[in-house]
Amino acid sequence: MQIDFKFPHNAVFIIIPILLLIAMSFGLRKKIRILQKLQLALIIKGERLRILCMFLGLILICVSLLGPQQLIGKTTIKQEGLDIYILMDTSKSMLVQDVAPSRLEREKQIIGQILSKLEGDRIGFIPYATSAYIQMPLTDDYDLANLFLKVVDTDMIGGGGSDVGKAIKLAHDSFDRSSQGNQVILIISDGEEHEKNSAEVLKNEMEASLKVYTIGIGTPSGGLIPVYEDNSDQIIDYKTDEEGNPVMSKLEDTTLKELAQIGKGQYYLASVNGSEVTDFLSDISTLKKGSSKTQEVNRYGQLYQYFLGAGMVVFLVGYLVPFRRKSL
Question: Domain 78-293 - what CATH class?
Answer without folding.
Answer: alpha beta
